[in-house]
């Protein structure tokens, strides 16, 4: 069964169309990386999934039921924009309030458990307003995890997290999916997302550009040969005459896409009097794939 | 460890919601500030008006002399005897005397402050976002907020009453009951407390409509509250009877249900963030 199934979703704010005819399918147990530029409609879609915004049209189903169904809603954990905490309350009290809202009977044990999960048990007595941005994000995740949700919707959860925080976040998200939870996570830090996501959805201008599994993405990511030579500008010009796509990356390497083999490139340059000092083959990552996709779209 | 979640019935949901809202209300400094102000305000008013009673002020531009009139008895700050109420209202409209303005009826505006801040804080902090994601029933929220804010408002009114007694004792004003009995005074205070149930749903509608825009909810609440302000002395005179209490109770129930339904609709039909 699909955890989320969205068909022809539209949402407009006055004359502005934030989401237009969006289709989205998130399989149960997936970590769904939801990617898009600022203002592409990611947050609006997530808010609609969580029942915070009413769609102008289309259907949103969570586990086969309408997204407004009370029983389905009770199993949704959410972190959108910022954790909903009272600044003058302690972390513990904020967590206990949400536990009470969820109707968790063994609330104290549950709060301790989720705080431990995000390594925040030591900050329970801190006032929320005194917590750092990274701590607040972790508290938000802990709050979303309360009550063992079957669906987690996280909007930019790794914003403000340090390296350790990001690692913890990855571990937490992978762990929860092992228990059958589905995670929808949007982020601009695509390198981090690539490490955990099993499915991707790329949105642009309120429309879904493409949805794919991690395996499909892997297959779509082109292989390239990166090299450095004595005379870089001449080498680039020579290669550009022979191969369809030649670029120089930020690190100064010449990238040749769709070349049959590195040996052929080395031989071609050698025959033209250019010595190659370094050569390697690699694949473009999610970030580059996404940027390419956006460029193609434009 | 297995997480156990209680679900379903309206009663159970309301119980947990009330628990959370009462905990929030009673840990909120604002409540204590408002209740404290309600306690001190009548003391300050009674003492100061007694001190200034009979003093003459002259308008330097027109030369018109105005005699400042204080309270004749402590109970004037609580209300007026019906029959006098209409006269009192005319006086208030004409001269806006201290005694007609500075009385317990002001508190119905202070209740707006309590309700608006309490609700706006839910939306400003993002708590409403967490709440409505997991709790689809807006009725729980509206019912719980109405009941909790009513209790807060009732506490403010009772604090004002206690403050009036203390103020009367300090200022030396007479406690004479002219035209009403002690039982009627009790009915008057009870009806004033219950009347808060009429105002709370009004303020709640404005607050859920304005959401995190506190200024807007306050302005709207004050404006709408103003229309109902004149009915307070008529519904809750010092010589109130059981009928006054029942009228306030019926009004509270009617406004609670009717305006509660409107608040509920606003929450269901509008964006919550």
The computed structural class of chain A is alpha/beta
Query: How many H/I helical runs of chain A?
Result: 11
Low-pLDDT windows of residues of chain A: none
Quote the average pLDDT of chain A: 89
Task: Please give a structural write-up.
The complex is a heterodimer of chains A (298) and B (273). Chain A is α/β, with parallel strands linked by helices and 298 residues long. Chain A folds into 2 domains: 2-213, Rossmann fold (3-Layer(aba) Sandwich); 221-297, 2-Layer Sandwich (Alpha-Beta Plaits). Chain A has helices spanning 42-49, 70-73, 91-102, 107-117, 133-145, 163-178, 190-196, 214-220, 232-242, 262-271, 286-297, and strands spanning 2-13, 16-27, 31-36, 57-62, 65-66, 76-79, 151-155, 182-186, 199-204, 207-213, 223-229, 245-248, 254-257, 276-283. In chain A, the strands form 3 sheets. Chain A has a 6-stranded mixed beta sheet, sandwiched between helices. In chain A, strands 2-1-4-5 form a 4-stranded antiparallel beta sheet, with helices on one face. A 4-stranded antiparallel beta sheet of chain A has the order 12-13-11-14, with helices on one face. In chain A, strand 9 (199-204) and strand 10 form a beta hairpin. The longest helix of chain A has 16 residues, at 163-178. Chain B is mainly alpha-helical and 273 residues long. Chain B has one domain (11-269). Chain B has helices at residues 10-26, 29-52, 84-95, 98-101, 107-125, 127-134, 138-171, 182-210, 214-229, 231-235, 242-269, and strands at residues 56-58, 65-67. In chain B, strands 1-2 form a two-stranded antiparallel sheet. In chain B, strand 1 and strand 2 (65-67) form a beta hairpin. The longest helix of chain B is centred in the middle third of the chain and has 34 residues, at 138-171. Residues 85-96 of chain B have low confidence and may be disordered. Chains A and B meet through helix 2, helix 3 and helix 4 of A and helix 1 and helix 6 of B.
């Amino acid at each position: 069964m699909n955890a989320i199934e969205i068909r022809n979703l539209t949402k407009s704010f006055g004359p502005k169309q934030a989401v237009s005819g969006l289709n989205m399918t998130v399989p149960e147990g997936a970590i769904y990386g939801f990617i898009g530029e600022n203002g592409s409609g990611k947050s609006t879609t997530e808010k609609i999934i969580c029942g915070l915004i009413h769609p102008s049209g289309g259907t949103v189903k969570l586990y086969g039921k309408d997204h407004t169904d009370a029983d389905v809603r009770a199993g949704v954990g959410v972190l959108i924009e910022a954790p909903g905490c009272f600044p003058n309350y302690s972390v513990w009290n904020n967590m206990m309030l949400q536990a009470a809202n969820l109707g968790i009977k063994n609330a104290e044990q549950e709060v301790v458990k989720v705080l431990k999960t995000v390594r925040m048990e030591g900050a329970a007595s801190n006032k929320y307003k005194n917590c750092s941005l990274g701590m607040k994000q972790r508290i938000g995740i802990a709050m979303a995890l309360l009550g063992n949700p079957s669906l987690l919707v996280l909007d930019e959860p790794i914003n403000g997290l340090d390296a350790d925080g990001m690692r913890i976040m990855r571990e937490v998200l992978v762990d929860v999916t092992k228990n059958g939870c589905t995670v929808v996570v949007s982020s601009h830090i695509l390198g981090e997302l690539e490490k955990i996501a099993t499915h991707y959805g790329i949105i642009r201008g309120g429309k879904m550009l493409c949805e794919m599994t991690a395996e499909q993405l892997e297959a779509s990511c082109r292989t390239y040969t990166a090299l450095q030579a004595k005379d870089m500008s001449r080498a680039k010009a020579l290669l550009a005459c022979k191969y369809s796509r030649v670029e120089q990356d930020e690190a100064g390497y010449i990238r040749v896409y769709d070349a049959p083999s590195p040996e052929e490139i080395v031989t071609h340059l050698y025959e033209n009097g250019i010595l190659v000092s370094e050569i390697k083959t690699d694949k473009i990552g999610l970030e580059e794939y996404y940027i390419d996709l956006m460029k193609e779209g434009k | 460890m297995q997480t156990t979640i209680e679900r379903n019935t309206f009663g159970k949901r309301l119980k947990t919601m009330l628990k959370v809202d009462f905990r929030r209300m009673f840990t909120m400094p604002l409540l204590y500030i408002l209740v404290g102000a309600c306690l001190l305000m009548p003391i300050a008013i009674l003492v100061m008006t007694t001190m200034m009673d009979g003093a003459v002020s002259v308008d330097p531009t027109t030369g018109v002399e105005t005699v400042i009139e204080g309270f004749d008895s402590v109970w004037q700050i609580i209300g007026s005897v019906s029959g006098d109420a209409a006269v009192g209202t005319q006086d208030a409209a004409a001269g806006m005397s201290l005694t007609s303005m500075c009385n317990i009826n002001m508190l119905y505006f202070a209740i707006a402050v309590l309700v608006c801040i309490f609700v706006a804080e839910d939306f400003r902090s993002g708590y409403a976002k967490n709440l409505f994601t997991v709790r689809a029933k807006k009725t729980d929220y509206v019912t719980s907020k109405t009941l909790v804010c009513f209790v807060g408002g009732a506490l403010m009114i009772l604090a004002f009453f206690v403050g009036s007694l203390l103020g009367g004792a300090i200022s030396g004003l007479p406690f004479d009951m002219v035209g009403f009995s002690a039982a009627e005074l009790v009915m008057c205070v009870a009806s004033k407390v219950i009347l808060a149930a009429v105002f709370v749903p009004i303020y709640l509608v404005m607050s859920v409509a304005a959401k995190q825009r506190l200024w807007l909810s306050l302005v709207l609440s004050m404006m709408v509250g103003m229309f109902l302000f004149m009915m307070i002395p008529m519904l809750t005179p010092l010589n109130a009877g059981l009928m006054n209490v029942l009228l306030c109770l019926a009004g509270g129930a009617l406004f609670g249900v009717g305006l509660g339904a409107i608040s509920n609709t606003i929450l269901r039909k509008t964006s919550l963030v």
